[in-house]
Automatic annotation (TrEMBL):
EC numbers on record: 3.6.1.66
Sites where the protein binds substrate: T8, Q9, N10, K11, G12, K13, S71, F153, G154, Y155, D156, K176, H181, R182
Gene3D superfamilies: 3.90.950.10
Domain of life: Bacteria
NCBIfam families given in the database record: PRK14822.1 (NF011397), RdgB/HAM1 family non-canonical purine NTP pyrophosphatase (TIGR00042)
Key words, A-Z: Hydrolase, Magnesium, Metal-binding, Nucleotide metabolism, Nucleotide-binding
Chain residues that bind Mg(2+): E41, D70
InterPro entries membership: dITP/XTP_pyrophosphatase, ITPase-like_fam, RdgB/HAM1
Catalysed reaction equations from the record: XTP + H2O = XMP + diphosphate + H(+); ITP + H2O = IMP + diphosphate + H(+); dITP + H2O = dIMP + diphosphate + H(+)
UniProt source species: Planococcus faecalis
Record protein name field: dITP/XTP pyrophosphatase
Length: 203
């Protein structure tokens, strides 16, 4: 089976990537499997910058091609917050439930037609001696006023997907994969697969 390393410490992302890549015949490994303490500081101010920082740092340390994911939630009523700060919105401890509470508090009193938002995902593909490439995807939704559903991770319980008439956290992994920002970015990557990544398929 082909193996691919995703440069992430996030278990929720790992599950999303498994749902996306297992059907394509890839075994997904993450930093949780191969380099638990490899933590890259996210000093960029855009998803692209942070995705590139993570992919290049991890590819350099491991000496192999990797894909990184930098993603987050943009809420129109909050001028695009939490954006690139989504993981750290309620503090450095990176708590999903504290982040959700902070969003719900800031959005209290905002009527339904003003609760538009989107998830964004930028994937960066880096390899030793190759030019790093990025791919992006988004997914439109509405911020709920109470959490719904137990699947997924992060802000999924407060992100309503009109196209599915469900919260993201109510979708099954393959249903999320079909419509998510991460799925859309990965499909973009597949369309413009860097040759050297395609050739890298390990057995
Ligand atoms: O599908 C998603 N469903 C719900 N929430 C999501 C999703 N995708 C990103 N998000 C939120 C979670 C986290 O608060 C932030 C990502 O931050 P981000 O820095 O990219 O990831 P992270 O620090 O958790 O892991 P890592 O950097 O090791 O990949 O956006
Ligand atoms: Mg991060």
């Amino acid at each position: 089976m082909k193996k691919i390393v995703i440069a992430t410490q996030n278990k929720g992302k790992a599950k999303d990537f498994e749902a996306l890549l297992a059907p394509l015949g890839y075994k997904v490994l993450t930093l949780l499997d191969v380099a638990q303490d490899l933590d890259v500081e996210e000093t960029g101010v855009t998803f692209e910058e942070n995705a590139i920082l993570k992919a290049e740092a991890v590819s350099k340390v491991l000496g192999i091609p990797v894909i990184s994911d930098d993603s987050g939630l943009e809420i129109d009523a909050l001028n695009g917050e939490p954006g690139v700060y989504s993981a750290r919105y309620a503090g450095a401890a990176k708590s999903d439930s504290a982040n959700i509470d902070k969003v719900l508090e800031k959005m209290s009193g905002v009527p339904e037609n003003g609760r538009t938002a989107r998830f964004r995902c930028v994937l960066a593909v880096a390899a030793p001696n190759e030019k790093t490439e990025t791919f992006s995807g988004s997914c439109e939704g509405i911020i709920l006023s109470t959490p719904q559903g137990n699947n997924g991770f992060g802000y999924d319980p407060i992100f309503y997907v009109p196209a599915q008439s469900k919260a993201m956290a109510e979708l099954l992994p393959h249903e999320k994969a079909a419509i998510s920002h991460r799925g859309n970015a990965l499909r973009e990557l597949q369309q413009r697969m860097p040759k050297w990544l395609d050739e890298e398929k390990q057995s």
